[in-house]
């Protein structure tokens, strides 16, 4: 029986990883405050604030696998100091945001990383976490760099905006799609791969990303899943920005829309992920599960990402 320690385990991705490990018969321990929710039934929960002195004393002993989900230096460094010596394998969940350039489609794990000059920035902190972990663990470290993680329960609401929006009917405001792409990974694919990769001793950096999808296909799939034809009103970047619509995420955004110059961000190479056993759920299947989740949570709820219906109508009326 493998002993698996998840630094987290009560949040969205961490809980999924814990569930996969339990299904495989592993002995699973989750070290977390538990403020994001309960850990899965069958897992041991060490209720600890990781910023407390001696936080890792309760997790002493040898571990077959440690999974680190944090990136803040004041969380990553003490965990390594307390646990790295007794961990046979360590998985750091990083991000494709670590790459310095987003203008090269198909770039793999050898691409240059950002220069981490500001640890308060997400990408910089992820790079620092990678470097600190590599220094402490050497060839025992897997650096998983996911793209946009999607699926039921997604707290960001980015991917779910589109099927939920089409489901409301009416004219849908969308960016121009020519030359635009999306690249997502289903949370169930990612969590299953993270567990298998740890069990198989996979190490080094791996872009954990799904298939490259034309943005137009993402929109048409969302419309199909929602059961509508999709009355779309496309607007170019300049027009959307002039109406204070944001890129990518947030309450005033059209989610997953990126500047044309970032064409490589959603076209990262998935070769290493596939070679190491990674899978990709078909887009329509993921979209259907997400729409069901959106309806269960309330499609009319206040969202973390996407345009408010009233705001969208105002923009559409002004464009017409």
Major β-sheet strand ordering: 3-2-1-4-5-6-10
Helix content: 25-40%
Radius of gyration: 20 Å
Q: Order of SSEs, N→C? A: EHEEEHEHEEHEEHEEHEHEEHHH
* Main β sheet profile: 7 strands, parallel
Structural class, judged by helices and strands?
A: alpha/beta
- Find the CATH topology of the largest domain: Rossmann fold
Superfamily (CATH H level) name of the largest domain: NAD(P)-binding Rossmann-like Domain
Q: What is the averaged pLDDT score?
A: 96
How far is the N terminus from the C terminus? Answer: 64 Å
Strand content: 15-25%
Number of domains in the coordinates?
A: 2
Give the oligomeric state.
Answer: single chain
Which residue ranges are poorly predicted, with pLDDT under 50 across at least 5 consecutive positions?
none
Brief write-up:
The protein is of the alpha/beta class and 320 residues long. The chain contains ten helices and 14 strands.
Explain how this protein is built.
With 320 residues, the chain is of the alpha/beta class. It folds into 2 domains: 3-149 and 187-208, Rossmann fold (3-Layer(aba) Sandwich), CATH 3.40.50; 151-183 and 212-266 and 281-319, no CATH class. 34% of the residues lie in helices and 19% in strands. Strands 3-2-1-4-5-6-10 form a 7-stranded parallel beta sheet, sandwiched between helices.
């Amino acid at each position: 029986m493998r002993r698996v320690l998840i630094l987290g385990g009560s949040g969205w991705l961490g809980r999924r990883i814990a569930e996969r490990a339990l299904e495989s018969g592993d002995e699973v321990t989750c070290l977390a405050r538990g403020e994001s929710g309960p850990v899965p039934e069958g897992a041991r929960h060490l209720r600890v604030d990781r910023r407390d002195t001696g936080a890792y004393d309760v997790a002493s002993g040898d571990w077959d696998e440690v999974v680190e989900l944090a990136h803040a230096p004041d969380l990553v460094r003490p965990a390594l100091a307390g646990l790295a010596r007794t961990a046979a394998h360590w998985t750091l969940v990083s991000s494709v945001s670590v790459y310095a350039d987003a203008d090269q489609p198909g770039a793999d794990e050898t691409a240059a990383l950002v220069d981490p000059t500001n640890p308060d920035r997400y990408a910089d902190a992820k790079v620092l976490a990678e470097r600190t972990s590599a220094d402490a663990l050497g060839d025992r470290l897997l650096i998983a760099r996911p793209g946009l993680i999607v699926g039921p329960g997604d707290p960001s609401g980015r991917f779910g905006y589109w099927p939920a929006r089409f489901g409301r009917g009416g004219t849908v405001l969308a960016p121009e799609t020519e030359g635009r792409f999306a690249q997502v990974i289903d949370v169930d694919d990612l969590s299953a791969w993270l567990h298998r990769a740890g069990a198989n001793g996979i190490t080094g950096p791996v872009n954990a990303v799904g298939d490259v999808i034309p943005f137009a296909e993402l929109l048409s799939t969302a419309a199909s899943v929602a059961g509508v034809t999709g009355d779309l009103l496309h607007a170019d970047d300049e027009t959307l920005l002039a109406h204070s619509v944001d890129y990518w995420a947030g309450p005033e955004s059209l989610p997953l829309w990126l500047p044309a110059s970032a064409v490589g961000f959603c076209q990262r190479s998935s070769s290493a992920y596939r070679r190491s056993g990674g899978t990709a759920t078909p887009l329509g299947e993921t979209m259907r599960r997400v729409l069901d989740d959106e309806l269960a949570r309330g499609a009319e709820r206040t969202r973390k990402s996407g345009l408010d219906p009233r705001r969208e109508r105002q923009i559409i009326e002004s464009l017409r």
